[in-house]
Design goal:
Shape: globular
Radius of gyration: 18 Å
Largest sheet: 6 strands, mixed
Helix content: 40-55%
Strand order of the largest sheet: 8-7-6-11-13-12
Number of strands: 13
Number of helices: 13
Order of helices and strands: EEEHHEHHEHEEEHEEHEHHEHHHEH
Strand content: 15-25%
Protein backbone atom coordinates (compact mmCIF):
# COMPACT_ATOMS: atom_id res chain seq x y z
CA UNK A 1 0.00 0.00 0.00
CA UNK A 2 1.36 3.40 -1.00
CA UNK A 3 0.10 6.73 0.36
CA UNK A 4 -0.09 9.21 -2.49
CA UNK A 5 -1.43 12.68 -3.18
CA UNK A 6 -2.93 13.60 -6.53
CA UNK A 7 -3.73 17.18 -7.54
CA UNK A 8 -5.82 18.06 -10.58
CA UNK A 9 -5.64 21.72 -11.56
CA UNK A 10 -8.21 22.55 -14.20
CA UNK A 11 -9.65 25.69 -15.73
CA UNK A 12 -12.30 26.23 -13.05
CA UNK A 13 -11.22 24.23 -10.00
CA UNK A 14 -8.24 22.65 -8.26
CA UNK A 15 -8.76 19.38 -6.43
CA UNK A 16 -6.79 17.20 -4.03
CA UNK A 17 -7.03 13.49 -3.25
CA UNK A 18 -4.84 11.82 -0.64
CA UNK A 19 -5.29 8.05 -0.71
CA UNK A 20 -3.74 4.70 0.16
CA UNK A 21 -3.44 2.72 -3.08
CA UNK A 22 -2.78 -0.99 -3.57
CA UNK A 23 -2.20 -1.51 -7.30
CA UNK A 24 -2.13 -5.32 -6.96
CA UNK A 25 -5.72 -5.48 -5.66
CA UNK A 26 -7.11 -2.30 -7.24
CA UNK A 27 -8.07 -0.95 -3.81
CA UNK A 28 -8.02 2.80 -3.22
CA UNK A 29 -8.77 4.05 0.30
CA UNK A 30 -9.64 7.74 0.32
CA UNK A 31 -8.17 9.77 3.19
CA UNK A 32 -8.94 13.33 2.09
CA UNK A 33 -10.68 14.70 -1.00
CA UNK A 34 -11.35 18.40 -1.47
CA UNK A 35 -12.06 20.93 -4.18
CA UNK A 36 -11.57 24.70 -4.45
CA UNK A 37 -12.98 26.90 -7.22
CA UNK A 38 -10.08 29.10 -8.33
CA UNK A 39 -11.02 30.02 -11.95
CA UNK A 40 -7.41 29.69 -13.12
CA UNK A 41 -8.69 30.02 -16.67
CA UNK A 42 -10.29 33.43 -16.04
CA UNK A 43 -9.93 35.40 -19.29
CA UNK A 44 -7.43 32.98 -20.90
CA UNK A 45 -9.63 32.52 -23.97
CA UNK A 46 -9.42 36.28 -24.66
CA UNK A 47 -5.98 37.33 -23.38
CA UNK A 48 -3.92 34.16 -23.75
CA UNK A 49 -2.52 34.79 -20.23
CA UNK A 50 -3.25 33.63 -16.69
CA UNK A 51 -4.60 36.60 -14.71
CA UNK A 52 -2.55 37.62 -11.60
CA UNK A 53 -5.59 37.29 -9.34
CA UNK A 54 -6.36 33.83 -10.77
CA UNK A 55 -2.77 32.71 -10.08
CA UNK A 56 -2.98 34.00 -6.50
CA UNK A 57 -6.27 32.15 -5.86
CA UNK A 58 -4.63 28.99 -7.17
CA UNK A 59 -1.48 29.43 -5.08
CA UNK A 60 -3.62 30.00 -1.94
CA UNK A 61 -5.33 26.65 -2.56
CA UNK A 62 -1.92 25.01 -3.13
CA UNK A 63 -0.71 26.28 0.26
CA UNK A 64 -3.78 24.75 1.93
CA UNK A 65 -3.23 21.44 0.10
CA UNK A 66 0.47 21.39 1.03
CA UNK A 67 -0.49 21.49 4.72
CA UNK A 68 -2.94 18.57 4.28
CA UNK A 69 -0.36 16.49 2.37
CA UNK A 70 2.27 17.09 5.06
CA UNK A 71 -0.15 16.23 7.87
CA UNK A 72 -1.21 12.94 6.23
CA UNK A 73 2.32 12.00 5.21
CA UNK A 74 1.88 11.20 1.52
CA UNK A 75 4.98 9.50 0.10
CA UNK A 76 4.46 10.68 -3.48
CA UNK A 77 2.78 13.72 -5.01
CA UNK A 78 1.67 14.11 -8.61
CA UNK A 79 0.34 17.48 -9.78
CA UNK A 80 -1.42 17.51 -13.14
CA UNK A 81 -2.44 20.73 -14.87
CA UNK A 82 -4.95 20.80 -17.68
CA UNK A 83 -6.47 23.10 -20.25
CA UNK A 84 -5.91 26.66 -18.95
CA UNK A 85 -2.23 26.24 -18.19
CA UNK A 86 -1.67 24.50 -21.55
CA UNK A 87 -2.97 27.59 -23.35
CA UNK A 88 -1.33 30.41 -21.37
CA UNK A 89 1.68 32.46 -22.50
CA UNK A 90 2.81 33.01 -18.88
CA UNK A 91 2.53 29.37 -17.78
CA UNK A 92 6.11 29.56 -16.40
CA UNK A 93 4.82 31.82 -13.58
CA UNK A 94 2.33 29.10 -12.71
CA UNK A 95 4.98 26.35 -12.78
CA UNK A 96 7.38 28.29 -10.53
CA UNK A 97 4.66 29.10 -8.00
CA UNK A 98 3.51 25.49 -7.67
CA UNK A 99 7.09 24.22 -7.38
CA UNK A 100 7.85 26.70 -4.58
CA UNK A 101 4.75 25.71 -2.58
CA UNK A 102 4.47 21.95 -3.12
CA UNK A 103 7.98 20.94 -4.12
CA UNK A 104 6.81 19.27 -7.32
CA UNK A 105 6.56 20.65 -10.82
CA UNK A 106 3.10 20.61 -12.37
CA UNK A 107 2.85 18.33 -15.37
CA UNK A 108 1.04 20.17 -18.12
CA UNK A 109 -0.43 17.10 -19.75
CA UNK A 110 -1.91 16.66 -23.21
CA UNK A 111 -5.60 16.15 -23.78
CA UNK A 112 -4.95 12.49 -24.57
CA UNK A 113 -3.11 11.93 -21.28
CA UNK A 114 -5.93 13.71 -19.47
CA UNK A 115 -8.39 11.32 -21.08
CA UNK A 116 -6.34 8.26 -20.04
CA UNK A 117 -6.35 9.33 -16.39
CA UNK A 118 -10.07 10.12 -16.49
CA UNK A 119 -10.93 6.72 -17.95
CA UNK A 120 -8.88 4.81 -15.37
CA UNK A 121 -10.33 6.77 -12.46
CA UNK A 122 -13.92 6.49 -13.67
CA UNK A 123 -14.07 2.84 -14.73
CA UNK A 124 -11.75 0.92 -12.36
CA UNK A 125 -14.66 0.30 -9.95
CA UNK A 126 -17.07 -0.77 -12.73
CA UNK A 127 -15.09 -3.91 -13.56
CA UNK A 128 -17.23 -7.02 -13.13
CA UNK A 129 -20.61 -5.26 -13.22
CA UNK A 130 -22.97 -6.98 -15.63
CA UNK A 131 -25.66 -4.26 -15.58
CA UNK A 132 -23.47 -1.78 -17.48
CA UNK A 133 -22.65 -2.81 -21.05
CA UNK A 134 -19.29 -2.14 -22.68
CA UNK A 135 -17.73 -0.27 -24.30
CA UNK A 136 -17.89 2.72 -21.96
CA UNK A 137 -17.86 6.28 -23.20
CA UNK A 138 -16.31 8.43 -20.47
CA UNK A 139 -16.91 12.17 -20.84
CA UNK A 140 -15.12 14.61 -18.57
CA UNK A 141 -16.73 18.05 -18.93
CA UNK A 142 -14.22 20.52 -17.57
CA UNK A 143 -13.98 24.29 -17.51
CA UNK A 144 -11.98 24.71 -20.69
CA UNK A 145 -12.19 21.37 -22.47
CA UNK A 146 -14.14 18.12 -22.61
CA UNK A 147 -12.46 14.74 -22.91
CA UNK A 148 -14.09 11.81 -24.70
CA UNK A 149 -12.74 8.29 -24.13
CA UNK A 150 -14.11 5.00 -25.42
CA UNK A 151 -12.83 1.70 -24.09
CA UNK A 152 -13.49 -1.56 -22.32
CA UNK A 153 -10.79 -2.44 -19.76
CA UNK A 154 -8.38 -0.11 -21.55
CA UNK A 155 -8.67 3.03 -23.67
CA UNK A 156 -9.42 2.37 -27.31
CA UNK A 157 -9.78 5.95 -28.54
CA UNK A 158 -9.65 9.40 -26.95
CA UNK A 159 -10.05 13.02 -27.98
CA UNK A 160 -10.01 16.34 -26.14
CA UNK A 161 -11.98 19.26 -27.59
CA UNK A 162 -12.06 22.90 -26.52
CA UNK A 163 -15.57 23.18 -25.15
CA UNK A 164 -16.11 23.49 -21.40
CA UNK A 165 -18.45 25.28 -19.03
CA UNK A 166 -16.15 28.27 -18.38
CA UNK A 167 -14.92 28.64 -21.95
CA UNK A 168 -18.49 28.58 -23.37
CA UNK A 169 -19.76 30.99 -20.70
CA UNK A 170 -16.95 33.50 -21.27
CA UNK A 171 -17.14 33.21 -25.05
CA UNK A 172 -20.90 33.57 -25.45
CA UNK A 173 -22.59 34.79 -22.24
CA UNK A 174 -20.29 37.57 -21.00
CA UNK A 175 -21.21 41.02 -22.34
CA UNK A 176 -19.20 44.04 -21.13
CA UNK A 177 -17.72 41.95 -18.33
CA UNK A 178 -21.09 40.74 -17.02
CA UNK A 179 -22.72 37.32 -17.47
CA UNK A 180 -26.10 37.67 -19.23
CA UNK A 181 -28.77 36.73 -16.70
CA UNK A 182 -30.53 34.68 -18.01
CA UNK A 183 -29.00 34.13 -21.47
CA UNK A 184 -30.88 34.94 -24.66
CA UNK A 185 -32.02 32.27 -27.12
CA UNK A 186 -29.38 33.54 -29.57
CA UNK A 187 -26.62 33.10 -26.99
CA UNK A 188 -27.77 29.58 -26.17
CA UNK A 189 -27.89 28.75 -29.89
CA UNK A 190 -24.29 30.01 -30.29
CA UNK A 191 -23.11 27.75 -27.44
CA UNK A 192 -24.97 24.83 -28.96
CA UNK A 193 -23.34 25.44 -32.36
CA UNK A 194 -19.86 25.37 -30.76
CA UNK A 195 -20.69 22.14 -28.91
CA UNK A 196 -22.00 20.45 -32.07
CA UNK A 197 -18.83 21.43 -33.97
CA UNK A 198 -16.72 20.00 -31.13
CA UNK A 199 -18.74 16.77 -31.19
CA UNK A 200 -18.04 16.50 -34.93
CA UNK A 201 -14.31 16.79 -34.13
CA UNK A 202 -14.50 14.22 -31.32
CA UNK A 203 -16.37 11.78 -33.58
CA UNK A 204 -13.48 11.86 -36.08
CA UNK A 205 -11.35 10.02 -33.50
CA UNK A 206 -13.74 8.45 -30.99
CA UNK A 207 -16.52 6.06 -32.14
CA UNK A 208 -19.23 7.81 -30.10
CA UNK A 209 -22.04 5.72 -31.59
CA UNK A 210 -20.46 2.44 -30.44
CA UNK A 211 -20.71 3.30 -26.74
CA UNK A 212 -23.16 1.27 -24.66
CA UNK A 213 -22.71 3.05 -21.30
CA UNK A 214 -22.19 6.80 -20.91
CA UNK A 215 -20.14 7.69 -17.81
CA UNK A 216 -20.12 11.39 -16.91
CA UNK A 217 -17.47 13.13 -14.80
CA UNK A 218 -16.76 16.49 -13.20
CA UNK A 219 -18.72 19.30 -11.59
CA UNK A 220 -21.26 20.09 -14.30
CA UNK A 221 -22.38 16.44 -14.41
CA UNK A 222 -22.39 15.89 -10.64
CA UNK A 223 -24.33 19.13 -10.10
CA UNK A 224 -26.98 18.07 -12.64
CA UNK A 225 -27.17 14.71 -10.84
CA UNK A 226 -27.60 16.36 -7.44
CA UNK A 227 -30.47 18.48 -8.81
CA UNK A 228 -32.05 15.42 -10.48
CA UNK A 229 -31.88 13.49 -7.20
CA UNK A 230 -33.54 16.38 -5.33
CA UNK A 231 -30.72 16.66 -2.80
CA UNK A 232 -30.98 19.48 -0.26
CA UNK A 233 -27.19 19.72 -0.18
CA UNK A 234 -24.27 18.18 -2.02
CA UNK A 235 -23.83 14.49 -1.11
CA UNK A 236 -21.09 12.75 -3.08
CA UNK A 237 -22.08 9.28 -1.84
CA UNK A 238 -25.63 9.71 -3.15
CA UNK A 239 -24.36 11.15 -6.44
CA UNK A 240 -21.63 8.55 -7.09
CA UNK A 241 -22.88 5.92 -9.55
CA UNK A 242 -26.35 7.48 -9.74
CA UNK A 243 -28.05 6.95 -13.11
CA UNK A 244 -29.78 10.05 -14.47
CA UNK A 245 -32.18 9.57 -17.41
CA UNK A 246 -32.02 11.73 -20.54
CA UNK A 247 -35.40 13.41 -19.89
CA UNK A 248 -34.21 14.74 -16.53
CA UNK A 249 -30.96 16.01 -18.02
CA UNK A 250 -32.93 17.81 -20.75
CA UNK A 251 -35.34 19.38 -18.26
CA UNK A 252 -32.53 20.54 -15.92
CA UNK A 253 -30.42 21.90 -18.79
CA UNK A 254 -33.35 23.96 -20.09
CA UNK A 255 -34.15 25.20 -16.58
CA UNK A 256 -30.54 26.27 -15.81
CA UNK A 257 -30.59 28.40 -18.96
CA UNK A 258 -33.78 30.23 -17.98
CA UNK A 259 -33.17 30.87 -14.26
CA UNK A 260 -31.49 34.03 -12.96
CA UNK A 261 -28.18 33.99 -11.07
CA UNK A 262 -30.04 34.41 -7.74
CA UNK A 263 -32.40 31.52 -8.52
CA UNK A 264 -29.54 29.19 -9.46
CA UNK A 265 -27.59 30.21 -6.35
CA UNK A 266 -30.50 29.09 -4.14
CA UNK A 267 -30.27 25.49 -5.41
CA UNK A 268 -28.98 23.40 -2.48
CA UNK A 269 -26.35 21.36 -4.35
CA UNK A 270 -24.95 24.33 -6.29
CA UNK A 271 -21.37 25.31 -5.47
CA UNK A 272 -21.07 29.14 -5.48
CA UNK A 273 -18.32 28.96 -8.09
CA UNK A 274 -20.57 27.01 -10.47
CA UNK A 275 -23.62 29.29 -10.46
CA UNK A 276 -22.68 31.22 -13.61
CA UNK A 277 -21.30 28.27 -15.62
CA UNK A 278 -23.78 25.45 -14.89
CA UNK A 279 -26.05 26.39 -17.82
CA UNK A 280 -23.28 25.91 -20.37
CA UNK A 281 -22.01 22.77 -18.62
CA UNK A 282 -25.45 21.14 -18.54
CA UNK A 283 -25.92 21.98 -22.22
CA UNK A 284 -22.66 20.17 -23.09
CA UNK A 285 -23.94 17.05 -21.30
CA UNK A 286 -27.33 17.24 -23.01
CA UNK A 287 -25.76 17.60 -26.47
CA UNK A 288 -23.52 14.57 -25.83
CA UNK A 289 -26.51 12.45 -24.79
CA UNK A 290 -28.45 13.50 -27.88
CA UNK A 291 -25.52 12.84 -30.21
CA UNK A 292 -24.85 9.36 -28.77
CA UNK A 293 -28.47 8.38 -28.16
CA UNK A 294 -27.71 7.67 -24.49
CA UNK A 295 -30.86 6.98 -22.43
CA UNK A 296 -29.03 7.76 -19.18
CA UNK A 297 -25.72 8.96 -17.79
CA UNK A 298 -23.93 7.02 -15.06
CA UNK A 299 -22.39 9.67 -12.81
CA UNK A 300 -18.96 9.09 -11.29
CA UNK A 301 -17.34 11.05 -8.49
CA UNK A 302 -14.15 9.16 -9.30
CA UNK A 303 -12.37 10.66 -12.24
CA UNK A 304 -9.04 12.09 -13.37
CA UNK A 305 -8.06 12.69 -9.73
CA UNK A 306 -8.31 8.98 -8.91
CA UNK A 307 -6.46 8.18 -12.14
CA UNK A 308 -3.65 10.56 -11.11
CA UNK A 309 -3.35 8.79 -7.75
CA UNK A 310 -3.22 5.39 -9.44
CA UNK A 311 -0.45 6.63 -11.73
CA UNK A 312 1.49 8.00 -8.73
CA UNK A 313 1.17 4.66 -6.91
Amino acid sequence: MTRVAGIDCGTNSIRLLVADCTPETGELIELDRRMTIVRLGQGVDKTGRLAPEALERTFAACREYAAVIKELGAERIRFVATSASRDAENRDDFVRGVLDILGVEPEVISGDQEAEFSFTGATKELTGRDDLAKPYLVVDIGGGSTEFVVGEEHVRAARSVDVGCVRMTERHLVVDGVVTDPPTKEQVAAIRADIEAALDLAAETVPLAEARTLVGLAGSVTTVAGIALGLAEYDSQAIHHSRIPYEQVREISERMLTLTHAERARIGVMHPGRVDVIGAGALVLLAIMERTGAHEVVVSEHDILDGICWSAA
